[in-house]
Inverse folding.
């Protein structure tokens, strides 16, 4: 379970390698987000070609669509991630990512929905990682932005290592709808982690002790 935001600072050597406070929460969020994102990135075009009969060119265009939309989404959501609002965006984006995964499930019966799923995935799932990094930078203590962002990125790419192999166990037997439901479950867990952290952070910010990290980093000097 992530350590409390107000916990005492660890020894300098340990601090660089162990996520704590908001970094631990965002790392956990990124782990499940990364598992879902990597699964879609890996299998979407294969799904479009083999299961929906789109052909290699159109199936590859699905990934191009989610990538292009994702670039715009990352820029737009990052600009919207202002202190006081940014804390709630990961949960919101994860909820949208769940919707994109459910559209992929439905596309097995209505192939045109796969294009809507690709757009929704770019808007929500691809953008969520950028917002988590904005939060890291906003809340980093002096000199900690690089180390904190590397820990959150490690969680995200750990998800890349876990998600596709799990999806592959289903894809190899043609169970793509079950695979997309697995992705939806991963995004649901990511959203639950993000929402729990946002609630906890709001309570901490409103407490008399002010133990939450808030939007301003506290110097350890």
């Amino acid at each position: 379970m992530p350590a409390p935001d107000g916990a005492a600072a660890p020894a300098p050597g340990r601090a660089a390698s162990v996520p704590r406070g908001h970094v631990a929460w965002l790392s956990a969020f990124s782990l499940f987000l990364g598992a879902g994102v990597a699964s879609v990135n890996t299998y979407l075009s294969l799904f479009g070609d083999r299961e929906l009969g789109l052909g290699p060119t159109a199936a590859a265009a699905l990934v191009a669509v989610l990538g292009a939309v994702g670039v715009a989404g990352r820029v737009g959501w990052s600009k919207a991630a202002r202190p006081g609002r940014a804390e709630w965006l990961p949960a919101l984006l994860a909820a949208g990512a769940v919707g994109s995964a459910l559209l992929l499930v439905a596309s097995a019966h209505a192939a045109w929905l796969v294009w809507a799923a690709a757009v929704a995935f770019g808007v929500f799932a691809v953008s969520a990682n950028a917002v988590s990094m904005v939060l890291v930078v906003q809340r980093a203590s002096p000199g900690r932005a690089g180390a904190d962002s590397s820990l959150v990125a490690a969680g995200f790419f750990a998800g890349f290592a876990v998600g596709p192999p799990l999806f592959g166990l289903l894809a190899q037997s043609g169970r793509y709808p079950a695979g997309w439901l697995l992705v939806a479950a991963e995004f649901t867990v990511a959203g639950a982690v993000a929402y729990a952290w946002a609630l906890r952070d709001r309570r901490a910010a409103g407490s008399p002790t002010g133990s939450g990290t808030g939007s301003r980093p506290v110097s350890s000097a």
Notes: Residues 91 and 196 are 9 Å apart (CA to CA). DSSP finds eight helices and no strands in the chain. Residues 21-51 form the longest helix (31 residues). The chain has a mean pLDDT of 86.
